[in-house]
Amino acid sequence: MITMEHVCKSYKIAKRNAGFGEAVKALFHREYEEIHALNDVCFTIDDGEMVGYIGPNGAGKSSTIKILSGILTPDSGRVLVDGRIPYKNRIEHVREIGVVFGQRSQLWWDVPVIDSFELLKDIYSISNTLYKQSLEELTELLDLKELLRSPARQLSLGQRMRCEIAASLLHRPRILFLDEPTIGLDAVSKLAVRDFILKQNKVNGTTVILTTHDMQDIEALASRILLIGKGKILLDGTLEDIKHGNENIDETVAELYCSYDI
After folding, report:
1. Is residue 37 helix, strand or coil?
2. Which residues contact 9 (CB under 8 A, 6 or more apart)?
3. In whole angstroms, what is the distance from residue 233 CA to residue 44 CA?
4. Listed residue (50, 65, 63) closest to 198, CA to CA
5. How far apart are alpha carbons 113 and 60 in whole angstroms?
6. Pick from 74-88, 175-189, 198-212, 216-230: least confident
7. Considering the domain boundaries, does residue 69 fall inside one?
8. Residue range 205-223: average pLDDT?
9. Which of 3, 87, 119, 188 could cross-link to 73 by cystine, CB 3.0-4.6 Å?
10. What per-residue confidence (pLDDT) applies to 246?
11. Is residue 159 part of a domain?
């Protein structure tokens, strides 16, 4: 289903010291630092798997998701998602995937949520029948009935995230990429989102890749974890493989990060 083989991705970031003089100097001579976001990343994910993709800030998680969703092009390596090269077959590819970025929105800020859904229906060329079925199902499962007529800017973070997840699933994707989907949510909203993701996986066989710093999300959802640090895959296994005694999941992962010096 999903394969990454020896994938590398680097960025150049401009650097300068503080002050007006340094700003003027940078106009004529700019210094750059090269960041290796991904360095020889390899893994395979099968149909219907729920994978937790974890690592510290700057480890390369979001870069991986962006490459898999076709937003970024890798510098080198091979990427296949359901037989497609994401960045070369973007139109065909996006019809089969759903993406939720916890700190980005695909909803129009000043119009009712339902208008954003109607726009996505046209973008994805969803048939009227499928759209109606998906909307009714998602509205019920995510409790959106009272939210659809409100502009996105007037929703709480938890309410908006439920709408974001619904927006990413209107076209019934086979693969779901979730990048920090529960960031900033209260306990009730987190449980609702987790339950919904589990149902999507069990009922529809949706393949899910979840990146998050909330280890309770990983513990509740993921049957397999991939640990990335400094752009490299450091571990591929299950939570049971890394737990020690009665440690909670946060302590376990903190020790894991220390052991790999990340």
Report:
1. strand
2. 36, 37, 38, 60, 63, 67, 72, 74, 75, 231
3. 12
4. 50
5. 32
6. 175-189
7. yes
8. 89
9. 87
10. 62
11. yes
Task: Establish if 212 belongs to a structural domain.
Answer: yes
Residues above pLDDT 90, as percent of the chain = 48
Residue closest to 197 by CA, chosen among 182, 213, 214: 182
**CB-facing half-sphere around the CA of 235: CA atoms within 13 A:** 20
Structure tokens at 74: 């890798």
Band (pLDDT 50/70/90 cuts) for residue 244 is low
Average pLDDT over residues 176-183: 86
pTM to 2 decimal places:
0.85
In a domain, 110, yes or no: yes
Average pLDDT of the residues in 27-41 = 88
Q: What is the mean pLDDT of the chain?
A: 89
- Residue 78: CATH number of its domain: 3.40.50.300
Structural domains of the chain, count: 1
DSSP character string of 178-221: EESTTTT--HHHHHHHHHHHHHHHHHH--EEEEE-S-HHHHHHH
Instruction: Look at residues 8, 5, 184, 237 and name the one whose alpha carbon lies nearest to residue 256.
Output: 237
End-to-end CA gap in the chain: 29
**Strands across the sheet containing 50-54:** 97-101, 175-179, 207-211, 50-54, 224-229, 232-237
- Identity at 141, one-letter amino acid code: L
Would you state the structure tokens that stand for residue 203, as one six-digit string?
A: 């009922």
Residue 213, strand partner residues = none
